[in-house]
Fold:
Amino acid sequence: MPVRFARLLSHSTLVSAALAALSIPARSQQAPDGSTSRNPDDSLELWRLPAPALAARCRGAVATAQGQLEAVLESSSTGAAFPALQRVEQANAGLQSATALPRALQVLSPDAATRDTAAACDRVVANFLAAAAADVRLYALAQRAQDGLRALPRDSAGAADRQLAELYVESGRLAGAGLDSAGRARSVRLLQRHADLERDFNIALAADSTHIRIPLRDTLDLDPQSRAQLTREGDSAAVKVDESTFGPFMKSQSDRRARARFYVAYNRRGGRANVARLDSALAVRDSLAHMLGFPNWGAYQASTRMAKTPERVFALLSSLKAPLRRKGASEVAELRSLARRDGLRGRFEAWDYGYYLERLRKSRYALAEDEVKQYFPVDYVLPAVMRLYGDLLGLRFEPVTPANGWAPDMSRYAVIDSATGTALGRLYFDLYPRPNKYGHFADFTALPTYRRPDGSRQLPWTAIVGNWSLPAPGHPSLLTHAEVVTLFHEFGHAMAAVLDRSPYPTTSNYRLDFVEAPSQMLENWMWQPDILKRISHHVVTGRPLPDSLTDRIIALKHLDNGVYWGRQVFFAAYDMTIHTRSGPVEPTATYLDMLPQFVPFTMPAGTFPEAGFSHIMAGYEAGVYSYLWAKVYAQDMFSRFEREGILDPRPGRAYRDEILAPSGTEEPDTLVRRFLGRPVNDAAFYRELGLPARAGTP
Structure:
């Protein structure tokens, strides 16, 4: 699926705005890359702890959090409210510091015992967070703090402080803190059940081992990297069916029956058990929404996002649906004509699309993916991307060896401010697939950043996690241009984590429907001729992309706009539809019914693609529209770079200072207005999609 996660701390996101973590007081210690931490054993890296020690650490962190929170709440009924709320937030920072990475290890660690321990840790923390967010005393404290800050002159209370109090109030309201005691107890149980369902869904998807078998003769179509991953047995080979293999297989496999079998298998990942988990989650969400006075889960979620209401989301999607469906039908008609000449009879199906799109690129536009990949060896692209980000944002990246990561074949860098030499944080890369690993591309913040009470700053650790094809033996790993774009996108999330200067972890995340905008904006760099030359390096000759190839790559950027963006609109519409319908929802039937309304394809019988749709079970439920909503802001922000210079350090510094550094301390519209010098408009967004601009706002 082409949509991607933003920074992901855990699968329990319902209450993370109010309580994400809590610290265990201890002496400060400096790590090898200059970062410091409260925890004396951080230099050992938590993933290296045996499972029992990791479990004990998690339990201890939660116990400490409970004690610290209780101490604040017992003494906060009188006196100034905001200082007490800050003490809660100080406690908040430490639990996140102690448990963010251990919780993520449930889908990152190659060790089964560690994954099991991490999942148990996630459950303990999620249960605590749900109960804490619904605590009526914390809710009252947050309301008093908010009222007190509102009574002050605007300039006497910082934006971060005001936002902190608002987020605690929002979180308490959505967790049920405003209900009576029976209602609060029920909301906590539902929140905890919801976290269990999301956790189990994603663990099952990460552990999915679906394969199909194909004759050895059919493996000749595959590129060397894909062939190197096959498991051979007799005259056939097993092909792993997952995110990393889907694109290469569907583009290159000439046997249509094999493509169809792969497509069906791909859309059954997660199994019927995940369908049941989604069904249960939908019921839990609907119950929670109605308990808290919302007509549905879509309204519940939108209430604390930029969109505010599902109706505004549907208005955006409605403006895109028909024109993109027409563009998609025209694109498919062209591919169908090509397939007819190739001897195809019957319907042109979804599993034909990628193969014939690649055929069209090769035959009509002389652009073959295999040719392009030769210019993007990972070992060159990765440092080249770091140099680009360094030039743009005033940074340098210094390798740290050994990486001492949670899995083999990882790399690690210290992020340094190039002007001052100050260490800003750690950056890890975990880029290749392995069993039981998170299946998409994402940036995981393993250690949050925030300002400590003594004024010092905890420096962040962040990790770009992906699933590129493993290199063939004796050869470097080669990337498609699309994979390079994805890397540049996720690197943007990593920089948002590293350059965040919010004083509080709770204010270190943008509103969900803006969180993708900074990284989406940076994708534009990967379509600039001069930039592509800087990051390309032929694996044999060492030469950059020639002008003729660069021009063809850029000319074909919008070749499949209708189908590509039509699918994005479908994902968003499907997600919001199942979260706004009244009464029981049948997610499989809804998916199969809605898809042809947005793209000219149908799903084959016997598939249940929602079982692998991880976003709607990992914090993006009723929020998949965010990728489209954020794209409006992304393209408008990019207009400043177009005007002043793609690598001009002045807009780059302004982007760092005015968008990344404030993070969630102010509302996104305020940040963007400051950066652009005017309110956002959607003209650049519609132009990017090849549609008539409305020159309005989302």
Observations:
- Residues 1-43 have pLDDT under 50 and may be disordered.
- The CA atoms of residues 276 and 611 lie 9 Å apart.
- The two ends are 24 Å apart (CA to CA).
